Fold this sequence. Notes:
7-stranded parallel sheet, 16 helices, alpha/beta, 531 residues, Rossmann fold, globular, two-stranded antiparallel sheet
Amino acid sequence: MFKVGIKAFTLFVFVGFTGSTFAQKQTPPAKAPVGWHHMDLKKDGYLGISTEQAYEQLKGMKSQKVVVAVIDDGVDIYHEDLSAVIWTNQKEIPDNGIDDDKNGYIDDVHGWNFIGGKSGDVDQDTKEITRLYSGLKAKYENADPAKVVDKVEYNRYLSIKKDYEKELKEAQQQLDMVNAMETIFRGAAKGNTVVSLSQVKEFIKTYKPTTAAEKKAKTILKIQLMAAKGDNVLPVDEIFKEAKTQMSTFTDYHLNLNFDPRSTVGDNYTNANEHFYGNNHVISHNGDHGTHVAGLIGAVRTNEIGGKGVADNVEIMTLRVVPDGDERDKDVANAIRYAADNGAKVVNMSFGKSFSYNKKVVDEAVKYAASKDVLLVHAAGNDASNNDKGNNFPNDVFEDGNVATNWIEVGASNWKPGKDRTANFSNYGKTRVDLFSPGVDIFSSTKDNKYDSYPGTSMASPIVAGTAALIRSYFPTLTAPQVKDILMQSVTPITDKVKIPGSKKKTKFSALCVSGGIVNAAKAVELAKKK
Length: 531
């Protein structure tokens, strides 16, 4: 899950209310032009992927349809900018309750949902660390360390217990902090539905905290609000609504040891070899993320509405595995297999987690996809972490030590030049991240014919997936490993020293990824022509 996290929320509280109503009332930072990720540095002044220059080189060439699977939280298949490019299983008769093509999935017309069942779909789920700790806790909570036979597993239990308790404590502290801030704002409002910044400033001067959370909240607000200019009026009920919901989700669902929604799916979860479960609900009520990803890959380029996808001759296959919580390895593995079996040549995976329940089953699916010549593109993560030193699952390193050749790991670049070229949230890794791609202020489709700009390696990854699909469409004889090599060799190299994400320290871009550069569609086409 990359959509929301404790670390992201820490920025909300301690750096300036990022994403809150309060932040929206302040002067927003400058943003890049809409669609900057398509732009060319020399022509437009922004280091995008030079999409239009790629199409200039492709004039007169024929292409063939490429199916791109979007493994995510769902896609709005009726979106005005996507409906024309949604994959349709021509062998399946819609809504007749029969598995017409005998692939094991009934009425899988536009893909499949591995987090649904006969009684509905999974919306909230736990984090993987919660699931792992829950299982180990039952086994070792009252164990005598001196009598434990499996010392390796016991030590893993102690490590996971420590990490889980730390996450739970942070989540509760953040929720307490939000509640404390809300108390201060409501006190300043004196029963009114709105409050001005001047009222809050004046109230803080005399406010006497009664809890440790309120004391810390007062200190933070003094620093942030006393420097704020103007006298904006803020609706009290809305200021912290989103943040409270977000943090309550962590304590009530993601880190709740007593919460398990898997019965909704109806599978035997412990059976990793079980493939045929779920339903055909490829749209979810929270499918903005997957819809955004799909638009970046293949939104119609010629309809003069919304945004433009990178690839002009693709079909988007929708595979749901991502709830509001961590995806499960069994579902990810089955989605990869479904994509490979049903004609996808590129798969985008804009999700990830720090722990894995069954890495082997995913490894086997990745190998299976390789046997079908399927290229897998995966987001590196948004924790400003070094993937060389930590885990971001799924990944391309198998348990046996071998590395997948049909896998691209993607970090996020910024539209800002020089030292700010990296997105400050992006994960990186000299050996574990392959290349970077635009991932800040990225405009694309969202549900219900809407559009928005999102940040994240979740956005950087589908831009690479779209570029890969473009190459596979116009150069269909190239294999998945060959397409990866082309994308790696044709990056725009970054020679300036850049900030290490999450730090003020600078380094060479080559220290942050294998290729040392940012994906470039035009150069990729140029190189593909020579193959």
